[in-house]
């Protein structure tokens, strides 16, 4: 057995959809110290968050549609989210950035050059600019320089057309969704499908945007309250690469929270700004994980922190991260699975075309065997089949 391969308590109790319905009432365990704080704080609530049993009731491994069904549709569009739901995704991901007038919109980058037709709008030509975002110099058009009304005149397009030419079929079909539109859409879909629609919501560049007077967390918390997703059992995860954003959210809402972890040598941008010398390598130690568990319910590590690759890009031996995180009561939602050779470990590539699909099931099997609780995937259907194979064998 590989390190960290012990099934988590959640895995032991989750037997697929039918089995889950039978056993999870008893298996649902909410994190200590979070219950009812929302009641004390009060606030607006449309009750759309439903009456679920919390994240421990989700199927494990949980398939999280990364930016929607981004393997098949331009990412972060209602078309991408809807397709992910149609394919059966357990959870749909949104990345959030703000507009100039303070609305939260769904984009992975605040630089919208690659994901919209903004370059085709002569009226916005003068908005093209160069700026430093989290220490990286970028030239393009940025959400924070547009009002929501202006952004809504743009159309979304495929971010990596060279890799996913088929997705360009849908270029221009959808606008940039606001997070509030997604919340409304999730309510409607929940009613239509008779189940909770789970979301996994990331604050992007929170320190950078706070510096511009566009703090993300308070805006996000207001929307979560308005749509009843601010409770410990609400069908939503909140995630960020910046621990201070998650700590800030923990003071505002009780929704489950996940700290994202990039490469071992990297430093969260809020640490850089605050002079905190810790790197991700420090955060994945037992002490670092204990610190995270004091304000979050999970971690979202890069897959390389779960199974490192060797010098040739092949999968090596799993680390102790799954075991150590579970020991602290943390769930793991690593990122990101994609079917194309270019994104797979070298030993699971097939042929020489980087855009062709490789042995994605083989790679998923290796990752799922580590005992992770879920996975972000661009290819919801592939990940679901792999998860079904895995739970059938479990
Ligand atoms: O949020 C999980 C995963 O999406 C993190 O990577 O860069 O795709 O937001 P990124
Ligand atoms: Ca993300």
TrEMBL record:
GP-PDE domain segment(s): 61-387
Listed PROSITE patterns: GP_PDE, TAT
Stored CDD domains: GDPD_ScGlpQ1_like
InterPro entries: GP_PDE_dom, PLC-like_Pdiesterase_TIM-brl, TAT_signal
Location of the region described as Disordered in the Swiss-Prot/TrEMBL record: 35-58
Annotated catalysed reactions: a sn-glycero-3-phosphodiester + H2O = an alcohol + sn-glycerol 3-phosphate + H(+)
PANTHER family for this protein: GLYCEROPHOSPHODIESTER PHOSPHODIESTERASE GDPD5-RELATED (PTHR43620:SF7), GLYCEROPHOSPHORYL DIESTER PHOSPHODIESTERASE (PTHR43620)
Protein name per its UniProtKB record: glycerophosphodiester phosphodiesterase
Natural source organism: Streptomyces wedmorensis
UniProt lineage: Bacteria, Bacillati, Actinomycetota, Actinomycetes, Kitasatosporales
């Amino acid at each position: 057995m590989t390190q960290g391969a012990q099934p988590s308590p959640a895995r032991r109790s989750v037997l697929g959809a039918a089995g889950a319905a039978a056993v999870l009432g008893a298996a649902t365990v909410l994190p200590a110290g979070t219950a009812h704080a929302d009641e004390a704080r009060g606030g607006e609530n449309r009750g759309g968050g439903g009456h679920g049993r919390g994240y421990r009731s989700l199927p494990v491994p949980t398939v999280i549609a990364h930016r929607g069904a981004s393997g098949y549709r331009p990412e972060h569009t209602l078309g991408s989210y809807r397709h992910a739901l149609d394919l059966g995704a357990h959870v749909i991901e949104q990345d959030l950035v703000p507009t100039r007038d303070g609305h939260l919109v769904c984009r992975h980058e605040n630089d919208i050059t690659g994901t919209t037709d903004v370059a085709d709008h002569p009226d916005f030509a003068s908005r093209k600019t160069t700026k430093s975002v989290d220490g990286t110099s970028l030239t393009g058009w940025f959400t924070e320089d547009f009002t929501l009304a202006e952004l809504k005149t743009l159309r979304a397009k495929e971010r990596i057309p060279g890799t996913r030419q088929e997705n360009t079929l849908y270029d221009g079909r959808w606008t940039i969704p606001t997070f509030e539109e997604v919340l409304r859409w999730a309510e409607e879909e929940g009613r239509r499908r008779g189940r909770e629609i789970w979301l996994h919501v990331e604050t992007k560049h929170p320190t950078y945007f706070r510096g511009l007077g566009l703090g993300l967390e308070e805006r996000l918390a207001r929307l979560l309250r308005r749509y009843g997703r601010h409770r410990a059992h609400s069908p939503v995860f909140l995630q960020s690469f910046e621990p201070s954003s998650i700590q800030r959210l923990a003071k505002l809402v009780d929704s489950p929270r996940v700290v994202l972890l990039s490469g071992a040598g990297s430093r969260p941008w809020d640490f850089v700004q605050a002079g905190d010398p810790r790197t991700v390598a420090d955060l994945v130690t037992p002490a670092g994980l204990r610190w995270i568990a004091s304000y979050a319910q999970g971690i979202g590590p890069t897959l390389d922190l779960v199974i490192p690759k060797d010098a040739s890009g092949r999968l090596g031996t799993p680390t102790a991260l799954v075991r150590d995180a579970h020991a602290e009561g943390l769930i793991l939602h690593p990122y990101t699975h994609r079917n194309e050779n270019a994104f797979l470990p070298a030993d699971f590539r097939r042929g020489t075309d980087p855009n062709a699909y490789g042995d994605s099931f083989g790679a998923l099997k290796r990752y799922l065997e580590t005992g992770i609780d879920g996975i972000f995937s661009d290819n919801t259907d592939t990940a679901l089949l792999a998860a079904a194979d895995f739970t059938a064998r479990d």
